[in-house]
């Protein structure tokens, strides 16, 4: 099978490598010429996935049309704010299976990434999400993720192409739930980072994660998603990974903010993207549009963008009126 | 209000301290004379909660009847295998509110701890559970837990007595769900410890936690609990805390086993209890009785008690048939 991966960040690169290890021919489209050269010449993406040797079947190009030519599968893995602009100039063969690995909510339109792809392309769109640090996937640590499409067939094809003895793909019909889990968990990672930066402990982190999942599921329900999805790999699984695993970009920004740094300083000079910062305002707007209460998202938004005092914000969260769960 | 805490481990001591800080008179019953002396003389429980100064209102006694005399609230916090034997000789005033903080499933009877208390005492029984490291509660880190009773009134009284600005108590009517969450999470902590001991990474841990919660909820459903409880503080909250926070006794035993140690050596010379080891066989028996599939509990049971190879067991878990979530 010929596959194409649009976007050569850590996650796109790791997914390309899984496909290649499964025997598929993979062409990665990368924005940066040195990333293209790195992948083709030294079989490593030193900019975004350093230290992980790539399968020789992974090839790269900076020509997007060449990348997707003849592909039966296209993986979209660009940062969410760039997805529409990146894919618009490309026209895949009608009916191509597209696995959307980008996680976020588009500014302005408040569209999920599968909706953005479906608006731009005539394709069979699948959301691919779940608890998966790219470097661990690249080093063949056992990992389980979810492929979701309303009609089961494209998700099953994605499952077949990606699965091997260490990379397990479960299918799910709840595209909205799977995507929201992946997008919103980044906001919660900023929230737990803020609490960490304020030197709160594990009890507070566990409470934030739990109440965070509850408000994610509330927004999901308003958008037609199933509560069960949020209890699954793309919901609590990815949330737990991002909030408790290695310090992610999102959590690191939260820690810096909790320690008193300004947002612009916390973001300065970084090549990788803090999707949680991008997603906070969209999530807040989406919650407002649907009349859903999301106190943790609101806390993060006010602390990040209105310079609301972080300690006061977390204290207010923890002392809301006592009530039933 | 006069309260009594039966059991002076870390958790019982921390709960006694919360009550005392809220202005209540608290008497702790402790099995060990030196613990009694420590609490009364130096206001610290150096054996089980070292480094945490206790409120002067916390008093201790080794006389169980004296401890509960006149108490409007009794907190049961003994290790789960000893709860029945410890409380049987005591006869509280009929209708006393009893908050059960012990977590486990009784061997043989397979009874939950609230059932054990209800069988032994004429009392209004409340399950108290949630993500709460005792040392963090003692150092006033913001913490949120759940008080559950089928009839809301005793849970609300427990909520009122325990709540303050840093210790938040939510009420819940699902006693079975709240208790099962607290008991089963210890088995999952052993499971994640085993994976850690085998040097698996965060992706594997997140997958284990997520699939672990799914099988906890399956057993809960068979016992009449609500799935929503497992998505809450006493379910995923406590599970996340125990599997990702400081190395708990349960996880530490798992790590040792994963690194190849025998169970008896992993348990040797420890004064604190690994409740997860106690609970594994009961949970497995309870699952069998109700015809519920619990592959992670089974993996832990076989590795702990049948010396099944840990690496093979985890690999088998991760390579079960691909399917929908």
Structure description:
By secondary structure, chain A is α/β, with parallel strands linked by helices. Chain A has two domains: 2-173, NAD(P)-binding Rossmann-like Domain (Rossmann fold), CATH 3.40.50.720; 176-318, N-(1-d-carboxylethyl)-l-norvaline Dehydrogenase, domain 2, CATH 1.10.1040. Chain A is 51% helix and 13% strand. The first copy, chain A, contains 16 helices and eight strands. Chain A has helices at 10-21, 33-42, 64-68, 83-87, 113-120, 134-138, 152-162, 175-197, 202-222, 227-230, 233-244, 249-258, 263-267, 275-289, 295-305, 310-318, and strands spanning 2-6, 25-29, 58-61, 73-76, 96-100, 123-129, 143-148, 167-172. An eight-stranded mixed sheet of chain A has the order 3-2-1-4-5-6-7-8, sandwiched between helices. In chain A, helix 5 links the parallel strand 5 and strand 6 (123-129). The longest helix of chain A is centred in the middle third of the chain and has 23 residues, at 175-197. The first copy, chain A, starts with a strand and ends in a 7-residue tail after the last helix. The interface between A and B is large, with 58 and 58 residues.
Features:
8 strands, alpha/beta, 16 helices, 325 residues, homodimer, N-(1-d-carboxylethyl)-l-norvaline Dehydrogenase, domain 2, eight-stranded mixed β-sheet, Rossmann fold, 2 domains
How do the strands of the widest beta sheet of chain A line up side by side? 3-2-1-4-5-6-7-8
| CA-based shape of chain A | globular
Q: List the uncertain runs of chain A.
A: none
Oligomer: homodimer
Helix percentage range of chain A: 40-55%
Compute the CA-based radius of gyration of chain A.
Answer: 19 Å
The total strand number of chain A stands at 8
Number of helical stretches of at least 4 residues of chain A: 16
- CATH fold type of the largest domain in chain A: Rossmann fold
The H/E string of chain A reads EHEHEHEHEHEHEHEHHHHHHHHH
Largest sheet of chain A: 8 strands, mixed
What is the name of the CATH superfamily of the largest domain in chain A? Answer: NAD(P)-binding Rossmann-like Domain
N→C terminal distance of chain A: 49 Å
Total tally of structural domains of chain A: 2
Largest interface: A-B, 58 and 58 residues
Q: Specify the CATH architecture of the largest domain in chain A.
A: 3-Layer(aba) Sandwich
Which structural class do the helices and strands of chain A define?
alpha/beta
> What is the CATH class designation of the largest domain in chain A?
Alpha Beta
Mean pLDDT of chain A: 94
Which percent range describes the beta-strand content of chain A?
Answer: 5-15%
């Amino acid at each position: 099978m010929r596959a194409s991966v649009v976007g050569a960040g850590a996650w796109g690169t790791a997914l390309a490598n899984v496909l290649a290890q499964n025997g598929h021919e993979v062409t990665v489209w990368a924005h940066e010429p040195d990333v293209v050269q790195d992948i083709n010449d030294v079989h490593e993406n030193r900019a975004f996935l350093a230290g992980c040797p790539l399968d020789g079947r992974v090839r790269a190009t900076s020509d997007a049309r060449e990348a997707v030519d003849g592909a039966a599968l296209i993986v979209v893995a660009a940062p969410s704010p760039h997805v529409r602009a990146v894919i618009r100039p490309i026209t895949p063969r009608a009916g191509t299976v597209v696995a959307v690995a980008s996680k976020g909510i588009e500014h302005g339109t408040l569209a999920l990434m599968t909706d953005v792809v479906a608006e731009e392309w005539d394709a069979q769109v699948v959301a691919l999400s779940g608890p998966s640090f790219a470097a661990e996937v690249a080093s063949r640590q056992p990992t389980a993720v979810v492929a979701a499409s309303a009609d089961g067939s494209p998700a099953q094809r994605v499952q077949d192409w990606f699965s091997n003895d260490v990379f397990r793909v479960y299918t799910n019909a709840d595209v909205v739930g799977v995507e929201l889990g992946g997008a919103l968990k980044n906001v919660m990672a900023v929230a737990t980072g803020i609490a960490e930066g304020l030197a709160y402990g594990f009890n507070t982190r566990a409470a934030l994660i739990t109440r965070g999942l509850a408000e994610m599921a509330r927004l999901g329900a308003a958008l037609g998603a199933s509560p069960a999805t949020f209890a699954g790999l793309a919901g609590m699984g990815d949330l737990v990974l991002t909030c408790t695993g290695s310090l992610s970009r999102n959590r690191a920004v939260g820690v810096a903010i909790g320690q008193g740094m300004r947002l612009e300083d916390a973001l300065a000079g970084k090549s990788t993207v803090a999707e949680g910062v991008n997603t906070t305002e969209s999530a807040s707007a989406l919650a407002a549009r649907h009349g859903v209460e999301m106190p943790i998202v609101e806390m993060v938004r006010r602390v990040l963008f209105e310079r609301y005092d972080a300690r006061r914000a977390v204290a207010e969260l923890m002392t809301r009126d006592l009530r039933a769960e």
